[in-house]
Specification:
By secondary structure, the chain is α+β, with helices and mostly antiparallel strands. The chain has one domain. Helix content is 39%, strand content 27%. The protein is built from three helices and five strands, in the order ββββααβα. The strands form two sheets. A three-stranded antiparallel sheet has the order 4-1-5. Strands 2-3 form a two-stranded antiparallel ribbon. The radius of gyration is 23 Å and the shape is elongated.
């Protein structure tokens, strides 16, 4: 799972992730961060509470999995529908 971080301020924001890497985010920029950088990171949560950054979960992978499930269900329904004989014998 990833997180989306958006800098809401007019100034650059810098913070240290859980891996020790320092992230620099330009004003109004959006960055995708891995889950391990965000989880239990007090600095990021403090920045979010102060409305300096907006931190949201990315649903990209969840959507892709849901889309794949839907494709499989549709394919199964198509296979069932093709097993029927056509009534139009014209």
């Amino acid at each position: 799972m990833t997180h989306i971080l958006k800098n809401l301020s007019r100034r650059p924001v810098s913070f240290r992730g859980n891996s020790g890497q320092t992230w620099h985010v330009a004003p109004s920029a959006v960055v995708e961060l891995p889950d391990f950088e965000v989880s239990e990171n007090p600095m990021l949560h403090k920045l979010a509470e102060r409305h300096v950054v907006e931190l949201t979960r990315s649903e990209k992978k969840e959507r892709a999995a849901a889309d794949e499930d839907k494709k499989e269900r549709d394919a199964a329904e198509d296979d069932k529908g093709r097993g029927r004989k056509s009534r139009s014998g014209r």
